[in-house]
Structure formats: C-alpha cells, structure tokens
Write a structure and sequence with these properties.
The protein has 359 residues and is α/β, with parallel strands linked by helices. It folds into two domains: 138 residues, NAD(P)-binding Rossmann-like Domain (Rossmann fold, 3-Layer(aba) Sandwich); 181 residues, Dihydrodipicolinate Reductase, domain 2. Helices cover 34% and strands 24% of the residues. The chain contains eleven helices and 15 strands. The strands form two sheets. The chain has a nine-stranded mixed sheet with strand order 14-13-12-11-7-10-9-8-15, covered by helices on one side. Strands 3-2-1-4-5-6 form a six-stranded parallel sheet, sandwiched between helices. It is globular. The model has no long low-confidence stretch (mean pLDDT 95). Bound molecules: nicotinamide-adenine-dinucleotide.
Length: 359
C-alpha cells in the first residue's frame, strides 16, 4: 500500500503530539516539516530524523512531493497555511480553532471545495472513548431528544502567556482556545443543530494574580513569560447558544477561576440532557428513570471501549484513513465554519452586551 506523504507545519507542542501519532501509523511517511522558527524546526527535525525541513510553507510546497499537510501553527496562521496547502493539491488536517474569523474559515472551506480536497478539523474530543461511547448511547436512543447541554472547560492556573495571551496571534482567550472543545463536542453529539443566536459575558480578571503564582503551567509555550508578555484576551466567559431546533448550550470557560474543579490541565464538564436520559461525559454517569424510579448508572471499562484508541491517535488515524481510503470524515470543514460563527458571535456579544444572531 502506498504511504501517505504528510507535511507537518508547526513544530511546537501540538506538532510534537501529532507527529508521534503519525510515527505510530504504518501507512504514513512524514515527508517534510516546516516552522518559521529555524531553531525549533531543526531541533524537532533532528529528533524525528526528518531531512526535508523548511522555514517557509510556500517553499516546502514547491519543493517536496506531498499528499497531505497537518497545520499545527498559531491560530493567526491557520487560514494562510491551510489555503496554501489546499491550493497545492493536498488534503489538510487543521488544528482547532479553525481560524481567527468566520470569514477566514469560510474561505478555507471554499478552497477545499474548489480543489476537491479534504479539509478536516482537529476537534480531538470527538475522537475520545467518552465521546464515542456517548455517540453509541445517543444512536441507540438512550438519551432521546437532547434539548440542553453544558459545555465547560475551566482552568485555574491562568493564561500561559506567549501567543495564547496575544490576541493578534490567538484571536482571544479561553473562549476560542478551550471553550471551543466542549462547544464543538456538545453540538456534534446533538447532531450538529443550526445555531440561531448567542449571548455572552466575558471577564478580564486575575491575569496579574495568576502571573505571580509560584507554580507554573507545565505546558506553556517555550519562552513564554506571563509577567511580561502582552495580555489582551479575556480570562473567563459564560455564554448561551440557542439552536434552531430549540436546544440550548451553556458554555463556561476560563483560564483563571478560583475553583476546585479546575486543574492545570483543565476541569471539564460536558453534560448532555435528553428526554430519555442524561449523560455526563466526564464522570461517565448515565441518569434515567427505570420502573418509575430515578436511576444513576456508571459506565464501566471506558478505556477498553472498541479499539481502545486515545483521542489524538484516533484523530490522526482517521485523517490518514480518509486520505488513503476515501472514508467519510467525521470532523469536516463545514462544522468548523459553524463553530467559528458561534465563537465570533460570542465575542461580539461580550463586547456589545447584546444577543447576537448567527446567520
Ligand atoms: N487539539 C488540542 O487539544 C490542542 C492542544 C494544543 C494546541 N492546539 C492548537 O494547535 C496550534 C498550535 O498550538 P501549540 O500549543 O502547538 O503552539 P506552539 O507555539 O507550541 O507551536 C506553534 C508553532 O507554529 C509555528 N508557526 C507559527 N506561524 C507559522 C507559520 N506561518 N508557518 C510555520 N510555522 C508557524 C511557531 O513558530 C511555533 O513553533 C494552535 O492552533 C492551538 O490552538 C490544539
């Protein structure tokens, strides 16, 4: 079987996570890597034994024969790198969030369609065992009509600094960075309903207190210093998303809540409420009525579900499968565009104090 020749664009934290999953897939050859930071690029390429290394995406696309690209760069460069790769005839996996704006996201999707190429979004939580078990419950009718969901992702340690706190590179704080995960997952599990309006309140508290903590976020970008780095993003937000089918989602996200749920790596709370049952994706508790009694059931052996694949591994393997075998993608560009519209609406609502219609 011909191997998929993949280029990895962006050799930072998530680039490292992705490459180890490609290395574990026997149908992939990492044919080139690219990063604008030559020092990081060389360190990464040496570690992973990759000859073809570039500091310019265009130069890489012009020099190497490739089938696919994986875009793992700052949010501000998702559109530029993705569009260049699609126009070079490659299938693309792009990390979340899709882009900085809904217009950019739409242009990325249009470019994929124009070139007849796949544009998959790295919505990794769709690929976790918890999500796949939830989907199984939903598909078999155990939740009934899901009319309300909670989408929570809260951290306590503060903004990590670096590009995360610089709006010109990130597009925003926890709404676009981590809120995007439960927002996408709950919408996906509800069957991707059409959003009609959003309302959001954002806070800008605790940046300084968190920067002065004596312990640090373990995964902060190399060289980041929250005490010195520019910080012009929100620190927390709460939002409501209303869908056309009458369902709603309550979003809560933060980098810096004084809250026991939150840890350095994130306190999640993804809960689905349906007419036949409720499901908490973090505790894997299922709630329903049996024989006129309220019953709480714990789903066991979550880690042993199906092929027991961890999220990033399942995501990368799915992308490779879609590229090589034409398998239908479960995380397509059209979903990324809708999520970008919701994110943009949340920011507009937080800024104006008004509900925003999603068109
Ligand atoms: N799915 C997840 O759970 C998850 C987790 C972490 C990060 N991410 C996403 O991955 C992306 C990268 O995050 P990170 O934490 O790896 O950041 P990072 O700073 O560690 O790495 C990003 C790299 O991209 C490079 N870069 C920036 N613009 C570029 C361009 N135009 N061309 C080539 N290289 C460029 C930077 O030099 C840097 O080395 C972000 O979009 C982030 O939202 C997703």
């Amino acid at each position: 079987m011909k191997k998929l020749r993949v280029a990895l664009i962006g050799t930072g934290n998530i680039g490292e996570t992705h490459i180890t999953r490609y290395e574990a897939n026997p149908n992939v050859e990492i044919a080139a890597v690219c990063d604008i930071d030559a020092e990081k690029l060389n360190k990464f390429a040496d570690k992973h034994n990759i000859e073809a290394r570039f500091t310019s995406v265009d130069e890489m696309l012009a020099s190497v024969e490739l089938d696919a690209a994986d875009v793992c760069v700052w949010n501000c460069s998702h559109a530029e790198c993705t569009i260049a790769a699609l126009n070079a005839g490659l299938n693309v996996l792009c990390e979340k969030p899709m882009a900085m704006t809904a217009a950019e996201a739409q242009e990325m999707k249009d470019t994929a369609d124009k070139n007849g190429k796949l544009l998959m979004l790295g919505f990794v939580t769709r690929f976790s065992n918890q999500s796949r078990i939830a989907k199984d419950f939903i598909d078999n009718g155990y939740l009934g009509n899901i009319y309300y969901t909670k989408a929570t992702y809260v951290r306590r340690h503060g903004n990590p600094g670096g590009w995360f706190s610089d709006k010109s590179r990130s597009g925003g704080g926890p709404i676009i960075d981590i809120g995007v995960h439960p927002l996408d997952l709950t919408r996906y599990l509800m069957g991707n309903p059409k959003p009609v309006s959003v309302y959001c309140v954002a806070a800008n508290e605790l940046h300084e207190d968190r920067a002065n903590l004596k312990t640090h976020v373990g995964w902060a970008p190399e060289g980041a210093d929250p005490k010195k780095d520019v910080c012009d993003v929100e620190s927390s937000a709460v939002g409501i998303i209303r869908y056309e089918n009458g369902a709603s989602t309550l979003l809560e996200c933060s980098y810096s809540l004084h809250d026991g749920r939150s840890t350095q790596d994130g306190g999640n709370g993804r809960i689905l409420y349906g007419t036949k049952g409720g499901l908490n994706l973090d505790t894997m508790m299922y709630y329903t009525d049996v024989n006129g009694f309220m019953v709480n059931s714990e789903i066991k052996d979550v880690d042993n579900y199906n092929e027991a694949k961890e999220g990033f591994r399942a995501e990368i393997d799915h992308f490779v499968d879609c590229c090589l075998n034409g398998t239908k993608c479960i995380s397509p560009a059209e979903d990324g565009v809708v999520i970008m519209k919701i994110l943009e609406g949340l920011y507009e609502s937080a800024r104006t104090g008004k509900s925003v219609d999603i068109i």
